[in-house]
Please model this.
Amino acid sequence: MSSVPTIFHLDMDAFFVSVEELFDPALKGKPVVVGGKAHERGVVSAASYAAREFGVHSAMPLRTAYKLCPQAIFVEGHPDRYRDYSHQVRAILENFTPLIEMASIDEAYLDMTGTGRLLGPPLQCAHALHQAIKDATALNCSIGIATSRLVAKVCSDQAKPNGILWIYPGLEARFLAPLPIRKIPGVGKVTEKNLHAIGIHKVGDLASLDEGVLGQRFGKWGLALAGKARGEDAGGWFDQDIGAHADAKSISHEHTFSIDTSDAELIDSTLTRLSEMVARRLREQGVHARTVQLKLRNRAFETITRARTLARPTQLDIEISRTIRELFRENWKPGAEIRLLGVQLSHFTSEAGQLNLLDSAQDERWREAMRAADHMRDRFGNSAVGLAAGMRGNFRERTHETLIPKPGAKKP
DNA sequence: TCTGGGGTCCTAGGACCC
DNA sequence: TCTGGGGTCCTAGGACCC
Model:
């Protein structure tokens, strides 16, 4: 007998803000914005419910958030804290099922199909899970329960804050129909606008539309959309078993300068530092990359990417930074101001490429050097070791920042 | 409104090969 | 000679998510 799937989607409530409140209880109940100082270049990572009442939401420029809510408390994010709490949550989930997929730092899918005899009916089980997380971390979460990932995710969103919502098997379409199309994961600003243009506003409008029309107008994505409107995990990201771990497809680091720059030395050292950072993570994951991509954003916020696929996969800082500098040189007009630089690696393989014995002997020396450097960084911090340009870069960017007095900045 | 950083997936065109 | 079709790789850009 095969039962209908029971999928939980668990989403932590205002996760970053809630974690910050644990470290500073004075923040509780106040409008809080996580992401940086009010006048910095950057966007809101998370806003407390009190701040949201003023219209502040994540991805909004910090300066805009400040205009909307000047009395808000602006705090820097602490990724290490969030990672730590995320791991704690995961450990609790593992007491309920091994079929877990962390979809991001603050949300997870659980396949609870067939756990009824052991853990009780879905609502009871969800309450137990909610309580277990509260007991262990003092954090609130919301849980959506449904027969598909998609509906479970929409459910947890509707349940927020601090709620549980279960959609009975068979009632998916009726639950989704009155919701705005934007509630469907994957429908963003652009798709919403395109759908509005043809008179579609509610998920129900979408569901009653002829599939052929959607396919014609929106391609493959349109067909997946039709399935989503009915609550199916059709196509794309949702169409995978929960817990099937997928290896990373790319590793990237990028940096937005606090002030646009055309300083060749600063640019060069930043490229070197970013190259070192991605290469390091490559080695941690034990893979080699074939494609190196540069990302450039100018003062006008125009962004280009330029990629180069290497003759053989690499793990080495020098090869990556050499390629990145080449790409940069080919695509930068000296004097042009740069807002952002990024380095991305992709097309991973488990083996290094090899041209001949001489290369391999040289590579081995480099690999040893990199291992030693990684070890030093572990012991003494990231800035302890770097290629020469990278070190200058760290120093310069820090110097550059401390020269500009910022509210609350500590004296060096 | 003046726009971070880390990712995934999709599309589309050109090169190249058979 | 002005010209098919399919497959694969590479590159660039863009939508979307948290």
User: Anything to note?
Assistant: DSSP finds 15 helices and twelve strands in chain A. Confidence is low (pLDDT under 50) at residues 388-412 of chain A.
